[in-house]
Design brief:
two-stranded antiparallel ribbon, 8 helices, binds zinc ion, alpha/beta, about 45% helix, five-stranded mixed sheet, Dna Topoisomerase Vi A Subunit, Chain: A, domain 2, single chain
Length: about 200
């Protein structure tokens, strides 16, 4: 027996497909949306569509941004010879929040995972190699300490070493399997300062 209308069921199903939203939260959100005034719902859907249409990859570091070049890459006061490699834009944001990192970033948009069939060609590694043709002094690998993050770090290290560029890995003060974005700023800074040569 269908307890709700078909439309509500469809809405719940779509919401439940979002990360971190279980079936109960999806139900709560669906009923909340249905009870919202029409203009508010319209504003929400417009914002989603506008974001989808206008957000793109920075041409240098591949983070998500509204412009061709993101604010970090566009900043001449940043050290462009120091590149921190992160898995996603949320990790970049976590390091930016510390306000203490002065280099630039490279966003991979994922990590190598043989289990999930994600290979080196599926993340922004080719683009990283291209950037390294320029004047780069150090690459800091700040992928997560999950199996995928470590596999990716190893791969990058092997790839870069022959180029004679210094390669470091953030210290393992970061909990295993911990997503960087959930780690507090002090821990992040300690991990950065305690980075080790690879
Ligand atoms: Zn950028």
């Amino acid at each position: 027996m269908d307890l709700y209308s078909g439309h509500i069921n469809k809405l719940i199903e779509e919401l439940a497909g979002l990360p971190g939203i279980g079936n109960k939260s999806a139900q709560r959100l669906a009923f909340h949306l249905i009870n919202m005034p029409q203009d508010k719902v319209k504003r929400l859907t417009d914002v989603i569509l506008e974001a989808k249409a206008n957000v793109r990859h920075c041409k240098e570091c591949y983070t998500l941004t509204d412009a061709d070049i993101c604010p970090v890459c566009a900043n001449k006061n940043r050290n462009h010879r120091l590149i921190m490699v992160v898995e996603n834009t949320r990790d970049l944001a976590a390091y930016e929040k510390t306000g203490r990192y002065e280099g630039v970033y490279h966003v991979l948009h994922g990590a190598i995972s043989p289990m999930l069939g994600i290979g080196p060609g599926d993340i922004k590694l080719k683009e990283l190699l291209q950037r390294l043709q320029g004047d780069v002094e150090e690459v800091i690998i700040a992928t997560n300490s999950s199996l995928e993050g470590e596999t990716t770090a190893m791969y990058i290290s092997k790839m870069i070493k022959p180029m004679g560029i210094r390669v470091t890995r953030i210290a393992s003060g970061v909990p295993v399997g911990g997503d960087l974005e959930y780690i507090d700023e002090v821990t992040l800074l300690r991990a950065l300062e305690g980075r080790v040569e690879l």
